[in-house]
Amino acid sequence: MEIFEIVTYFVLLALLSTAIRVVTTSNVIHAAISLVFTLALTAILFLMLSTEFVALVLVLVYIGAVIVLFLFGIMITRAPLGKNAELDNDKNKKLGAAIAGSIFLLFSYILINGFDGDVTITSGSSTELLGEILLSRFVFPFELVSFVLLAALIGGITLARKDEALIDEDQV
Amino acid sequence: MIVQPVLVVAAALFSLGIYGILVRRNAVMVLLSIELILNSVNINFIMFDTMLADTLMQGQIFTIFIITIAAAEVGIGLAIVLMLFRNRQTANINEFDLMKW
Question: Which range, of A67-71, A154-158, A161-165, B95-99, averages the lowest pLDDT?
Fold first, then answer.
């Protein structure tokens, strides 16, 4: 149990440091890679909380797909690779730090005062039960979310592709 | 596992995401910060799900839904950024001031 606590604090500290690196680094690729580490550490935290299915979904969807999309976005919008002093808006830095700091203080005050306790981690898989609940009680939101994904797919294609009709009009 | 440190780290991730949204100039970096915020919400959901030992596992189910919606949001967001880049040749959000008066 002692080692478990130490590992937990190590994971939390690493999570915090990689998240700070995501928002402070002046290199766009480094920010994306730091987000990979943040998400991987989150998955480790989920595994330690014995929610292994969510951890695997996080790894598959975020690290597998979303980060690749981000790297595509960085490459396509020709963000200057390497160090870029223009990446941050220096005028907003003080204000942003003040707002973020006050939000952090407020949230942590509420959370520390509101919730206390020790979680006992049960061993064993809960994925089978999760699947049963997802496809029985939560089947309507499940189907709705698949519809949202379809709409996002069509919307993304429509937004990102060049409009052939408009190009033809310009040429005429 | 003690609850409070995890919750405080989740709050820190949330505020770091807010900081990133306010400070970053590149639109793709703003989307990265939004991912940080969603991630902190996921951590909170999972922590409370384990803490309350809910028999319906609603925390985990909501986390899966959030991950799905986040994937859709990134797809649409990057498509919009791509279109703005195609029209303006830049991805800096302080130059998108068409609707500002």
Answer: A161-165
CATH number, domain with residue A113: 1.20.120.1200
Tens digits of residue pLDDT in A23-60: 998 888 899 999 999 999 999 999 998 888 999 999 99
CB contacts < 8 A (A, B) = 237
CB contact under 8 A, B1 and A16: no
Give the C-alpha separation, A100 to A71, whole Å.
26
pTM of the predicted structure, to 2 decimals: 0.89
Range of the domain at A155: 138-172
pLDDT above 80: residue A85: no
Instruction: Please check whether residue B76 is in contact with residue A149, taking contact to mean a CB–CB distance below 8 angstroms.
Output: no
Give the span between the Cα atoms of B98 and B89, in whole angstroms.
14
Residue B89: both structure tokens together: 């040749």
Q: Using one digit for the tens of pLDDT, what is the confidence trace for B18-44?
A: 999 999 888 889 999 999 999 999 999
Give the pLDDT confidence of A107-119 residue by residue, as tens digits: 999 999 988 877 7
Residue A158 and residue A113 in one domain: no
Q: Which residues of A touch B47 (CB under 8 A)?
A: 49, 119
B67 to A69: CB separation less than 8 angstroms, yes or no: no
| Structure-block tokens of residue B98 | 């068409």
Q: Would residue B100 count as lying in a domain? A: no
Are the CB atoms for A87 and A29 separated by under 8 Å?
no
With a CB cutoff of 8 Å and minimum separation 6, the contacts of B38 are B66, B70
Do A130 and A149 sit in the same domain of this protein? no
